[in-house]
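Schema walk-through. Below, the input block comes first and the output block second. Nothing else is stored per chain. Lengths vary across the set, and this one has 353 residues.
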Amino acid sequence: MAGRLEFDAAYRAIRRGELAPVYYLTGPEDVLKDELVTLIREEVLDPATRDFNVDVRAAADLDGERFHALVETPPMLAERRVVVVRNVEQWRKNARVWSVLDRYLANPSASTILVLVLGAGEKAHQELASRTVTVEVGSLSPERLRRWVQARAERAGLVLDEDAVEHLLHAVGPDLSHLAVEVEKLAAALLDGGRVRAADVAAMVGMRRGETPHDWVSAVLDRNITRAVEMLDVVLASGGVTGVRLVSLLGTTLVGIRVARAFLDEGSPSKRAERAVFYAIRSARPPELRGRDWKREAAAWTAVAQRWHPMAIDNAIRMVYEADRQLKSTTVRDERAILTDMLLRIGGQKAAA
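--- output ---
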């Protein structure tokens, strides 16, 4: 049994009890891979015997002999067992374990569900993908990400208001590991569970509404340079926020605004420009916009494009690029100074534009 499935399709199939003998989990989202592994364990194994019939190993710890023993071990007091091998990219190309795996794939054990997990950012092994059920665990769409946060909160005994979800995504970003940690912190702080509001999220993540990286970008786009400079101390002090992250977000936004401006200058109506920007975002899927509403971003960028001169946008993009290079220099000591200089130079274009 072989084939390719997206995460949602694989999740539904497993929930229906449609299990494959061998899974190959690839893609960038390790948290979602862990969720699939947990779901397989729950669907295959009875809680009473689960601990006896799950083996989770690192590929680097397995040679051919150990791998053979692992997958051929019979289950204990159960019909099937689950074997999980993480980071299969650690197997060397000519290692003997590959020939053992090749023989196993030709005749997998009926009593074992084997799950091979590829590390994030690693290239899938095409031969392996062609002989297994390969699940491409890609980044979640903005709407799917919101549902994931809500579901994670529900499992922790919480109910997040829509504003709380939005603020959590704005403050933390789309990193699932970081989001999971923040949800756990909220659950620990609110011992009795219950409803979580945006104010609760702000208190926990240390970033108030109006002081997120996206709010900082909005201040820049509004040419409120004084406000943008003042916000640096607060935004840079927030967990997970760096100067590189800020310029990446601002640079992505400015490029989108430039796309919108190009269509407007060609005489396209604003709605057509919005659609063009939306399709550009959907095609590029920039990581800085994961978790954001792409249609809303496209509309906002198009509106800003009508207030910025094309030359001013181009100059701002160049200034952001220069700031990015400085921030990534090994000699950098003061992120705030670099960002402040960038902001003042962007603000100084107003009169010229």
